[in-house]
């Protein structure tokens, strides 16, 4: 299958409405060239534009939902539409990723579990999600994650236990920690014998330069494709069936012990 990672540029000089239209157009441009399209985290506002979260927060089925559902349908692609600042009807904000099917239906919504910022920013402005999310595609099972989640291997183990074969990561990762971005993406791929499709943003959010360098990694940790620092679309073809073959030939996951019943031999 083919995946296109849209490493969109997010800067304060472009309105949210304009960027939403532009992102939808970029998704439509992938018609015929991709089966799966991935957008970054909080690309409407910027992942570090904390002051914009409340002002630009949307209901789940708000303007970004509507624009991305139509773009997925028009392009005929599975779409991880990145994440939005979602305002729950009861008041809390969530960092919520949306997944659409090729007919424009919502296949899943994932509220980010690990919020970044320690005692400020996202960590105090947004509530934590509490559910792991997988989506079954014809070719593979996606495990949906967002940015800071990448630092928590237990989350990915949980997704593997739910059948995940391909991890998709929407992110707004800073340039100053770019080496961690690639290292962690490869580690999650190797330890779980899965593909990792990690899509970041370009540009600068609230003065924080973004890493870019979206990357696709195979189950052996080999980088199949990597973007540069600026806005671009990274399209990579990969064999989704290789996950099952890798796990069969090198069955390390069967030897897991901590927190599990001993494997049957």
UniProtKB/TrEMBL annotation:
Signal peptide: none annotated. It comes from the Bacteria. InterPro entries: C-N_Hydrolase (IPR003010), C-N_Hydrolase_sf (IPR036526), UPF0012_CS (IPR001110). Keywords: Hydrolase. One of its GO terms (molecular function) is hydrolase activity. SUPFAM superfamilies: Carbon-nitrogen hydrolase (SSF56317). The keyword Lipid biosynthesis does not apply. Residues 1-240 form the CN hydrolase domain. Belongs to the carbon-nitrogen hydrolase superfamily. NIT1/NIT2 family. This is Carbon-nitrogen family hydrolase.
